[in-house]
TrEMBL record:
Residues 1-25 form the signal peptide. Residues 243-850 form the DUF5916 domain. InterPro entries: Carb-bd_dom_fam9, DUF5916. It comes from Hymenobacter elongatus. This is Uncharacterized protein. Residues 52-209 form the Carbohydrate-binding domain. GO terms for biological process: carbohydrate catabolic process. GO terms for molecular function: carbohydrate binding; hydrolase activity, hydrolyzing O-glycosyl compounds. Keywords: Signal. It comes from the Bacteria.
Length: 851
């Protein structure tokens, strides 16, 4: 009855919320849901040599057509710019040139913080957007700040705005009285376009005036219209431009000095290594490019944020390796590619058999990549084609006989091949159809995996409604690693279908999907839980025009429901409401997230599958709960800026046992201080406390460790308090727009303390158990990443990196609840250190030929 009353109260709250939103919706708006008319600009061919200096004093600049009269996109959409912007476009046989003059009121009005490449800061900027196939779906972004810092990105329906993409191009900026000037040179080798004698490209320009937190576009971009590339203007006048031969080689050499104080007996604690390899980029034709990395070295990428994982699912880490982040928008279609699978831990990493008189002395946690290649591009008809392939080497663990001293190798993963193939056809009205296939083939008798999927999106001519969906089939065949047992019944499927209103101030979306119990894309993708039927309804109202004392406002709402697919059983029902707004003068952003979940049946927490029991037999009952998170972010234009959030989640009474109620608390603080335009400090603190959490007992401990008798083989749950603190301090000093020094330190600690234990019976019934073994523990992770980077030439870099870390996954059976004692223990324990130097040099065939 209490649950019913709560649901009715929530329903009434949502109705009143939507009523208030509709009242706001009656206010007049200046930006209708239709896209603005497309402007046109003529490019001028030049034969004169242009000096890239940010001055624009060559005669050709004065003869070119001018793009001006920009329109504001935020914070007040539709308002003409007050300080004029003038942009001209020139071209020759090798490059596209863009010259822009940004007029302003005074030199002090032009903000100019210097950042690293591809990093936004407290600065004005100018952007060029190119849709070279004019398909209104895919495009390029070339941006330069007042200090000459370069940023570039790709746009696609799958990847959105992807700043991981990098091209080799150049830009210069100057200040001239109350104005600032940007001059960009974009080689044709940095982009792709057709061989047509006369080109028609999508084109837009943007200017950010940071003092007002305002952004302007040449061709108006209306926030009420779905899509971005489809709202650009047109560039005409490009004639007799031939796509060049795109061939470049980026060889590298690197050296490492590593010190590991915990190296095994008989192993050196300090080691050195030298590496060499290359990245190759070859334009197969005007549309397609081959990227390959030969003997890659990813030792300098940022350290992973290791955490204590008490959940039944794996931790998803960010991808920091450049080859797997650049130009991958086609491969991310359908979310079937989790690039961290390539080069991940060997499949037999945790299953090395060691005899009673033997010792494991070496077990690599990452597979060695021999090479990786990707081919991608898009034809003039809008067909995108992508092929990815990577090969990893045999991986072995080293085992030493303690009596004889002899060592033997144990195979942990055989030679493996990873591949993806994608076909993506762009259609009218911001629509597309795609086919994707991923495959993992391993040598020997180990299992192979294949996943094939199709997805679509169809929008109407007015770009106001869209229907989307996908169908995916997975197949695994072979033997479990190290076993002769066949993998049984590993053919699975997934489908989703959605319909929604995508443009206007008020939008909504209705979704339904099924994942079978044997659907498994995890050899190349990532999936946390299958065997489910889910449906949801989302709605949002956004007010983009300033009114009263606010710049904008947004309300969000969602109702979601899920069932176990087989057997069909209830899982969850939840409601969500969110709100945020930004004030006009202070640019203070405030908001909240409010959620309610009915009583939930968690079928994954008991780890049934790991114990060979069909999913659906056991589940953990989670009482109905309500959560609230409030947050604010101050004005980032100030030297000191602060963001904070605080959350509370309260649970109802446990349904079967007389336990204290659960509760969760969170607090986050994110101050930032900009000393000057070169030096910035950032700090983030995340604190969380879960009281009386119910969880599977072996969560976070060795999954191979058996429970004590008489509980072996049973689902044993523990009531626990989990306190977690994550602290990250970073500093960045940028010497010039091509040279920087960054330092990042992170300390993470999590303390788990158990109060009582219970056995779990089928049907979710719990019974208190007299379990005596201590399971309290403390987990610490500490990392330092210091990076000096110098882009000494376009596409060429020298980097010096120092990395420091405590033992990965260090865990103590001693419960240590005091944070500073944990920090002291972490700092005084032995740490591994690595210092490396890497030199990467970009060689372009066309540039070498001209020389």
């Amino acid at each position: 009855m209490r649950c019913t009353r709560t649901l009715l109260s929530w329903a009434l709250f949502l109705v009143l919320s939507w009523h208030s939103r509709w009242a706001v919706a009656q206010l007049p708006t200046a930006a209708p849901a239709q896209a603005s008319p497309k402007r046109q600009l003529q490019a001028l061919r030049t034969t004169a040599a242009l000096k890239l200096d940010g001055v624009l004093d060559e005669e050709a600049w004065q003869q070119a057509a001018v793009a001006t009269d920009f329109v504001q996109q935020r914070p007040n959409p539709g308002v003409p710019e007050r300080h004029k912007t003038e942009v001209r476009v020139l071209y020759d046989d090798a490059n596209l040139y863009i010259g822009a003059v940004m007029h302003d009121s005074s030199p002090d009005s032009i903000l100019r913080e210097i950042t690293q490449r591809d990093q936004f800061g407290n600065t004005d900027l100018f952007s060029v957007f190119l849709d070279t196939y004019h398909d209104q779906l895919n495009g390029y972004n070339f941006t330069v700040t007042t200090s000459g810092v370069q940023l570039d990105a790709r746009y696609s329906p799958a990847g959105g705005e992807d700043f991981n993409w990098n091209a080799v191009w150049d830009a210069r900026t100057t200040r001239r009285g109350t104005d600032w000037v940007a001059e960009l040179r974009i080689p044709y080798s940095a982009i792709r376009f057709s061989k047509a004698s006369e080109q028609l490209w999508g084109l837009n320009f943007a200017r950010q005036r940071k003092r007002d937190n305002a952004q302007f576009f040449w061709n108006e971009v209306r926030p009420t219209v779905d899509g971005f590339v489809n709202q650009w203007g047109e560039l005409r006048g490009l004639r007799d431009v031939q796509p060049p031969l795109r061939l470049s080689l980026s060889p590298y050499v690197s050296g490492y000095v590593n010190h590991n104080p915990l190296s095994g007996e008989g192993s050196r604690r300090t080691t050195t290594s030298f590496n060499g390899g290359a990245d190759v980029k070859w334009g197969i034709n005007e549309s397609f490019t081959l990227d390959a990395t030969l003997v890659p070295d990813f030792g300098q990428v940022q350290s992973d944020n290791q955490v204590l994982n008490l959940s039944p699912f794996e931790v998803q880490f960010n991808e920091n390796r450049p080859f797997f982040t650049e130009g991958t928008e086609l491969f991310t279609k359908g979310n079937l590619f989790y690039s961290r699978r390539v080069g991940a831990a060997p499949i037999g990493f945790r299953h090395v058999l060691v005899g009673s008189t033997e010792k494991l002395v070496r077990n690599p946690a990452e597979t060695q990549l021999l090479n990786a290649t990707k081919i991608s591009g898009r034809t003039s008809k809008g067909l995108g084609i992508g092929v990815f392939n990577a090969v990893s080497n045999d991986m072995y663990a080293t085992i030493r006989n303690l009596e004889t001293g002899q060592e033997r190798d144990a195979l942990t993963q055989p030679l493996s091949n990873y591949s993806i193939a994608v076909l993506d056809q762009s259609l009218k009205n911001n629509s597309y159809v795609s086919l994707i296939n991923t495959n993992v083939t391993r040598a020997g008798r180990t299992y192979d995996a294949n996943v094939a999927g199709g997805l679509f999106r169809f929008a109407n001519k007015q770009n106001s409604y869209a229907l989307d969906g996908r169908m995916v089939y997975s197949r695994r065949r072979g033997n479990v690693f190290g076993s002769a047992a066949e993998i049984d019944d590993q053919d699975g499927y997934k489908y989703t279908i959605g319909l929604g209103k995508i443009s206007g101030g008020f939008t909504w979306n209705l979704n339904h999907g099924i994942e079978s119990g044997t659907y498994n894309p995890n050899d190349m993708g990532i999936l946390f839980g299958n065997n489910s039927i889910s449906q949801s309804f989302d709605a949002a109202y956004r007010k983009y025009q300033p009114f009263w004392k606010v710049n904008n406002m947004a309300f969000f709402g969602q109702v979601s429901h899920s069932l176990l697919y087989q057997p069909t059983r209830y899982q969850s029902l939840s409601l969500y409401n969110g709100f945020n707004t930004t004030f006009t003068k202070s640019f203070l952003q405030v908001g909240y997230d409010l959620s309610f979940s009915a009583a939930t049946h968690d079928f994954f927490e008991p780890r049934s599958r790991e114990r060979g029991i069909p999913l659906g037999t056991y589940f953990v009952r989670v009482p109905a709960n309500t959560g609230l998170v409030v947050f604010f972010n101050s004005d980032t234009r100030k030297r000191f800026a602060l963001g904070m959030n605080a959350g509370l989640q309260r649970f109802g009474q446990e349904p079967r046992l007389p336990r204290p109620r659960r509760a969760s608390y969170t607090l986050g603080a994110y101050p930032r201080y900009r000393v000057n335009d070169h030096l910035t400090f950032r700090y983030s603190l995340d604190w969380g406390l879960s009281r009386n959490q119910i969880g599977y007992l072996n969560g976070g401990l060795d999954p191979e460790e058996p429970l004590d008798q008489p509980f072996a083989g049973q689902a044993l749950l523990g009531r626990r308090d989990v306190a977690t603190v994550s602290s990250v301090l970073s500093a960045a000093y940028t010497f010039t727009n091509r040279m920087s020094l960054t330092l990042r330190t992170r300390h993470y600690t999590s303390n788990v303390r158990y109060h009582d234990f219970a056995t779990l019976a089928p049907g979710g019934t719990e019974q208190l158990a007299d379990y005596q073994r201590t399971r309290d523990n403390t987990y610490n992770a500490f990392n330092v990443d210091a990076v000096y980077a110098w882009w000494f030439a376009p596409g060429s870099q020298i980097s010096v990196v120092w990395k420091n870390a405590n033992s990965p996954g260090s865990q103590s059976p001693d419960f240590t609840p005091l944070y500073f004692r944990n920090l002291n223990n972490t700092l005084t324990t032995p740490h591994a250190n690595s210092v490396s130097v890497k030199v990467l040099y970009y060689l372009d065939y066309l540039a070498l030929r001209r020389r």
